[in-house]
Every structure is written in C-alpha cells, then in structure tokens.
Specification:
With 145 residues, the chain is of the alpha+beta class. It has two domains: 74 residues, no CATH class; 61 residues, Nucleic acid-binding proteins (OB fold (Dihydrolipoamide Acetyltransferase, E2P)), CATH 2.40.50.140. It is built from four helices and five strands; from the N terminus they run H-H-H-H-E-E-E-E-E. The longest helix has 25 residues.
Length: 145
C-alpha cells in the first residue's frame, strides 16, 4: 500500500511541476519515486522518508542547477524568466511620487514599493516607469522614455 502512496505523491508532484517549471517539484517527485522503490524492496517507513529526503535533497542541490543552466537547449527558445526576474525591464505606472527613498508603482497589475535609481530625479504620480532591478520587495525604477 505504501508503494501506491509514494507513486501517487510522485505523480502529483510531477504534474504540479508542469505548472511551476522551477524544477524543485520535479526533484521531489524523483525522491517520491525513489521512496516507492525503497518500499517495494522492503524498507520500513522511517527509511522510506530518509530515501525521499536524501534523493530530493541531492536532486535539488546537484541536478536542478544543471537543468536550469541547460534548459534553453532542452526546451528550445530563449529561457523564460520567472518570479522577480520577469519584472526586470517591465513597464509600470507610478501610484504616488517615487524618489530615492520611497514610493509606490503598479507593475503587471500589482502594487509594489519602489524607489528611483540612485541619483535620478523624483518621478511624479501617474508617470510611466521601467523596472531596473528588484531589491527584496522594492522595485528600483526609472522614468520610461
């Protein structure tokens, strides 16, 4: 029965990976399939968990960086930016005045804390901006030309 549970967990994680493309869930799926194999050869539940954790950790630590590095060759086209990487060079509009200390902007339908690039003039509300970088939860922006 535990074999079926581990396989179901692995399949669920593999399907979820299709929606995230971060390769973390793929590594967890591989760990779940390894735990299913360990179960099939008679490992007790604590050892199943050890196998799952070890294989998943090794996958995340060793395989995921390699896959991410070569994903362009595997999947074709240019690598798609995800997360905050996708916000760099995105266009937006200031919600309130933005200066070197603080402000708020709308980027892709979300409200972000923002500040201007060091040394640039403040940007008034309602002006178009372009994201230069993301610093934590703050967008570094400049006036869009």
């Amino acid at each position: 029965m535990d074999v079926i549970i581990w396989i179901a967990i692995g399949l669920g994680l593999a399907v979820a990976e299709l929606f995230t493309v971060t390769f973390v869930l793929a590594m967890l799926a591989i760990g779940a399939f390894a735990a299913a194999i360990a179960t099939a050869v008679g490992a007790d539940r604590p050892w199943q968990l050890v196998v799952f954790a070890a294989v998943s950790a090794i996958g995340v630590a060793l395989l995921r960086p390699i896959i991410r590095k070569h994903r362009q060759r595997f999947f074709g086209g240019s690598p798609r930016k995800i997360g905050v990487e996708a916000l760099v060079d995105a266009a937006g509009v200031t919600q309130e005045a933005v200066d070197a200390g603080r402000g708020q902007v709308h980027i892709g339908g979300e409200l972000w804390s923002a500040r201007t690039v060091a040394g640039e003039a403040p940007i008034g509300p309602g002006e178009n901006i372009r994201v230069v970088a993301i610093d934590g939860a703050t967008a570094i922006v400049r006036r869009d030309q």
